Amino acid sequence: MINRMFNSQAALATFAVISSIILGLLAGCSPSSEPESALGSVESIEMNDALVVYSSRNEHLIRPVFALFTEETGIDVEYATDKAGVLIERIKAEGKNTPADVLITVDAGTLGYAAQQGIFQPLDSADVVERVPAYLRDDKDYWTGLSLRARTIVYSTERVNPEQLSSYQDLGASQWQGRVCLRTSKKVYNQSLVAMLIAEQGEAKAESIVSSWVANLAIPPTSNDTKLMEAILAGQCDVGIINTYYFGRLQEKQENLPLALFWPNQTEEENSGVHVNVAGVGILKHSKNAAQAKRLVEWLVSDSAQALFAGVNKEYPINDSVEINPQVASWGSFKQNPLPLSQAYLLQPAAVKLMDRAGYK
Amino acid sequence: MALPTLLALLGVLSSFLHPDIESLSHLAQYVLPQTIKNTIFLVVGVGVVTTILGVSLAWLTAVCDFPLRKFFVWALILPMAIPGYVMAFALVGLFEYTGPVQQFLRDAFGSSNAFPDIYSYGGVVMALSLALYPYTYLMVRNAFQTQGLRSLEVGQSLGLSVRESFWRICLPMARPWIAGGTLLVMMETVSDFGTVAIFNYDTLTSAIYKTWFGLYSLPAALQVASVLLIFVVIITLLERRSRASQRFSQTRSSKSVAGRIHLSGMFRWLALLACLLVFSLAFVMPVMRLLYWAVPNMDTELTTQFWAYVAGSTSLSLLAMMMIAGLALLMAFSARTYNSPFAKIVVRISTMGYALPGTVLAVGLFVPVAAIDNALGAMGLSTPLLQGTMVVMLLAYSVRFMAVAFSPLESNLLRITPSIDAASRSLGVSGIKMLAKVHLPMVKGGLLTAMVLVFVDVMKELPITLMTRPFGFNTLAVRIFELSSEGLWERAALPALAIVLVGLIPAFILIRKSDVR
Hints:
The complex is a heterodimer of chains A (about 350) and B (about 525).
Chain A: H1 2-33, H2 35-47, E1 51-55, H3 59-73, E2 77-81, H4 84-94, E3 102-105, H5 108-116, E4 120-121, H6 126-131, E5 144-156, E6 180-181, H7 188-201, H8 203-216, H9 225-233, E7 239-243, H10 244-253, E8 259-262, E9 275-284, H11 290-300, H12 303-311, E10 316-317, H13 326-329, H14 342-357
Parallel strand pairs in A: 1-2, 1-3, 6-7
Antiparallel strand pairs in A: 3-9, 4-9, 5-7, 5-8, 5-9, 5-10
Helix pairs in contact in A: 5-14, 7-8, 7-14, 8-14
Chain B: H1 2-13, H2 21-63, E1 64-65, H3 69-75, H4 84-95, H5 100-109, H6 121-147, H7 150-157, H8 162-173, H9 175-191, H10 194-199, H11 204-214, H12 218-242, E2 261-262, H13 265-294, H14 298-301, H15 304-337, H16 341-350, H17 358-378, H18 390-413, H19 418-426, H20 431-442, H21 444-460, H22 463-468, H23 476-484, H24 489-514
Parallel strand pairs in B: 1-2
Helix pairs in contact in B: 1-16, 1-17, 2-3, 2-6, 2-9, 2-11, 4-6, 4-13, 6-9, 6-21, 7-8, 9-12, 9-18, 11-12, 13-24, 15-18, 15-21, 15-24, 18-21, 21-24, 23-24
């Protein structure tokens, strides 16, 4: 019994020793390993001048943009990157005390979801309204697109005559039996493409289109767009659907690539065209720096920022007055689908379920 | 220690307060049947393969003698430093239809149709097993080594052949280590997302992410996560059950290992071949692939920032390693001292964090922490107190990796018999002194294993790091994520190689310390 008691004291003492060592380590190590950010946060509280951005657009794509912004305006930008869904939960959890001012994501669906979760405040910017076409920003003014990502058809120039191609839905036709490649339905780009089909064609029609795609698949869905193009190059399939910038990267690496882009749904009725999604931005409701945040958003839609923001990733600028990268220009111009992107969020769950039902993995 | 884990688990279970019937009924009809089946198949497949690989390689390198044995002792640990998704990407790149192997077959024989499809059940099991077998290998090797050749000698003195002694004495005696290693592997498999995503093999974890990010329903996603937790409870119970009635009380330091078994002619080469095969598939091949990508991109990636990533990863892993191993040691000793059902439950709960998908755990922890922080802020304390500091990060790591540190310690502690306590007390050594002078040296092997496992696991960790890191603080894993999620695998190769290289150091130290011969 005595031993028992002694042991419990011993355990307590050990605990005290170990935890004090750990605390000591923490105290000793954390300032030394992050001196700049510790200083930075103190400054931002006192002087209220560094903007904090949460972004699901990757670091190497936003870093040069923010560097230019700081250079032109003198406003510092700090940022944290993560998946959009996680960042939104983080902002909700942080509530009023969130250090963040701005959220950037790479998909209209997540922007719509963020708006619905009530984390944004209205942009209320004449610049944005003037420079960004209405269908590429939120109808309630909670977010705006910043660059366009076009999802289009890619085909083998050796085995496909582009005259055979016409629309997304036509990839389900019998001539493409066993010749189609698709990326996994878990990628948001395909989810928003199918959401667009639902908006355009109705849910029943969209489901039969997706089913006909699945029936035409040459190989199981690939894990990314680059793999899809490699499969076409290796002769496993002849056509597929990809985002244009992946094509741009492959083209840059490999000259005389026997692949080409095709712009579908151009001759269809008025309400159709190439499916586009946006990378976009919203200002947080609890931003302590809303004026500066607005300045960042307005700067991001300006000509000089647009060329860089879209250019670093071979995407399309949000406003067609901006000059585009010559490589991107060489793929030709196309008619965009004018479907308002604020609908993407509403239709995306239906799209995901539809693809599950159609057996599109 | 169980408290934060409990917090995260409760967060998951509390989702039942707001059931999202619409999403759930869709999932139940179209998604769950297939993903549950896939998850079971995957866990069983990876569990079996890693056990076979881990145990046999551990036996060969710990007890037998064959050419290059000393090299393979530590070389076979190295694949642990390769994140599962990197392993998968390298394997797929090599063996898929468009990869060099099938290309070669087509050039040589006109067709590669006979080659098995890498995008298959077999492919996923292979990738995960090659990435995870070192967990079992490390733990079981520790067992074979400390149990010494003594047991083998005893067997032989009883007239058993080497083979019989292995099956009847050594293997049963190593059961807690085998079970512990396999349990870790299975939990890691259940929570894996990156590897299965590359194969487009849908598991419960992929269903969770799809529900969260695709259907925009975090409640339904968490409800799927509870299905996954049921899995883990079942696996854990089965493991407990399988050895509930056993007691392990043998101990001998490795110094007592007598001569090794000298394998006869052909077996020597077979042993060498087996080790070589596993080592090249699980390490040489992926590293070559990474090198092939990394070299041309050296100029773009090898910047001053890169060294900041290396420093960030290393210091973070060291810190987490010391803290988590310390906490696990404390927990293991306390659980041993207070051998009550309550203590057992506490231990079980604190080790469950390993099986939750990382992102779910990160959110499950972040939400209550932020709530506490906001409450403190409302009380007039300056904010942010907890967020954006390393404290939250380390707390979350310890929830996630407690199982990794605890498992090797626990098996070693099983060997410290009550009579050893009694003996030491009779010599006037008790309390802390007994812990330090008697128990600690006896679990040294387990502690070292725990430290290496935690170090490497923290190096590879992503979701928690992403969510809780202070602004401007980056690690190698974060860098890999940033690049690979945009499909820039070529540029992600250099940071991936750096993780492997830094991971080598502790593996090396471990072997130097534990392998006397």
